[in-house]
Amino acid sequence: MTLPKRVKIVDVGPRDGLQNERQRVSTAVKVELVERLIDSGLPAVEVTAFVSPRWVPQMADNAEVLRTVLAGRYAGRDVSLPVLTPNLQGFDAAVAAGAQEVAIFAAASESFSQKNINCSIAESLKRFAPVVDAASALDIKVRGYVSCAVACPYEGAVDPAHSAAVARQLYEMGCYEVSLGDTIGTGTPASVQRLLAACAAVVPIEHLAGHFHDTYGMAIANIHASMQMGMAVFDSSIAGLGGCPYAPGASGNVATEDLLYLLQGLSIDTGVVMDKLLDASAFIAGHLSRRPLSKVWHALRGQCAAVQ
Ligand code: HMG
Ligand code: MG
Predict the structure, then answer these.
(1) From 50, 51, 105, mutation site for ligand 1 pocket: most ligand atoms within 8 A of C-beta
(2) How far apart are CA 124 and CA 106, in angstroms?
(3) Whether residue 244 lies in the annotated active site
(4) According to the model, what pLDDT value does residue 247 have?
(5) Distance in Å, CA 198 to ligand 1 centroid
(6) How far apart are CA 21 and CA 2, in angstroms?
(7) Whose C-alpha lies nearest to ligand 1, atom 52?
(8) Mean pLDDT along residues 284-299
(9) How far is the CA of 7 from the centre of ligand 1 (A)?
(10) Is residue 304 predicted with pLDDT exceeding 60?
(11) Nearest 5°: phi and psi at 35?
C-alpha cells in the first residue's frame, strides 16, 4: 500500500506529556506551551484533562488552562483542542470552560481500566454513553481512546480482538476518531499491524489513530508500519514527554519532532514547521530543567542550545 500524502499530528504533550510530571508546572507555562504548539501549525493539540485532581494533581488547573487558551492569541484559529473527560462531571466542567472537543478513554484490559478510571471496561462504556449524547446535543466532537491496545502493564499481551471490540464500541457510540494506545510501548511493527488488521475490520481505518508510547524505541517503526496499512493520524508529544501515572514504567509518546522528521523525509504533508516545534520543545524542557528526549532536537539543536 502507498503511504498517505498527508498526516494529521495530534500533539498530546500538554496532557499526556505533563500528567506524569511530579513538579508542578505553572498554568502560564502550560498555556504558552499550547500556544507555541498551535503556532507551529499543528492541527490538533490536546490541552488538558478534566479528571479528578486527586488522581492526577498536575491537571488540577484544567479549566483555567483551557479558558486562557481559548481567549488568548489564537482565539478563533482553526485548530482542534480536545480535553480528556472520564465522565459527565468532567464533561460539564470542560463545557463550562469552553471545550469544543472532548476525548473519552477506555481500555482493552480490565486491570488497567480499574487502575486508571476505577471501573470495569463495561462500566466505563456505560459512563461514556451520556457524555457522547450530551456532546452530540451541543455539537461537540468526541474522540475515543483504547488504552493497552497492544499490552497491559498488569496483564501482559492483549488480544487484538479485545482492542478491536472496544474500538468498535467507541466508534459506534459516536467517536469520530478512535486512537489506539500502545500505553506501555511494547508494540513492534508485527504486533501493531496485527492490531490494525483487527481494528480496521470493524472501524474504517480513516477513523483510527495511532498513539505510540516510545518505551522500547519502537514508536517510529510502528508509525511507519501503520502508515503502510493506511493509517494517517498519529498522536505524539512535544519533547517526547509523558507517560501514564497508572502505567508503571511506561515512558512518553513518540516525540513530535521525531515524527515530523520521519514524515518530512517521506514527503508527507503535515503543515507543521520544524523550527517552531524545536523552540516549543526547548521551551517546555527548559521549564522542566532537562533536555528534550527527541533525537531530532538533539541532532539539530543539542550542540548549541543550553537548557534555558
Ligand atoms: P472515582 O474516585 O471512582 O470517582 O474516580 P467518583 O465518581 O467515585 O468520585 C469521587 C470523587 O472524585 C468525588 O469528589 C467527585 O466529585 C470527584 P469528592 O466528593 O470525594 O470530593 N470526581 C471528579 N473530580 C473532577 N473531575 C472529574 C471527577 N469525577 C469525579 N471528572 C475518575 C473516577 C474517573 C474520576 C478517576 O479515576 C480519574 O480521574 N481518573 C483519571 C486517571 C487519568 O487521568 N489517567 C491518565 C489519562 S489516561 C492515559 O494517559 C492513557 C492515554 O494517553 C492513552 C494511552 O496511552 O493508552 C489516553
Ligand atoms: Mg498515552
Answers:
(1) 51
(2) 7
(3) yes
(4) 84
(5) 29
(6) 39
(7) 147
(8) 95
(9) 31
(10) no
(11) -65, -40
Burial (CB count within 10 angstroms: exposed 0-12, middle 13-18, buried 19+), residue 75: exposed
pTM passes above 0.85 = yes
Radius of gyration of the chain (CA): 18
CATH architecture of 8-302: Alpha-Beta Barrel (3.20)
> What pLDDT is recorded for position 245?
82
56 has pLDDT over 60: yes
Dihedral sign computed on CA atoms, order 158, 159, 160, 165 = negative
Domain ranges of the chain: 8-302
Expressed in angstroms and rounded, the spacing between residue 189 Cα and the centre of ligand 1 is: 32
Q: Is 139 left (phi over 0), alpha (psi -120 to 50) or beta?
A: left
Question: In this structure, which residue's CA is closest to atom 28 in ligand 1?
Answer: 52
Percent of the chain at pLDDT exceeding 90: 94
Q: Do the beta carbons of residue 66 and residue 48 sit within 8 Å?
A: yes
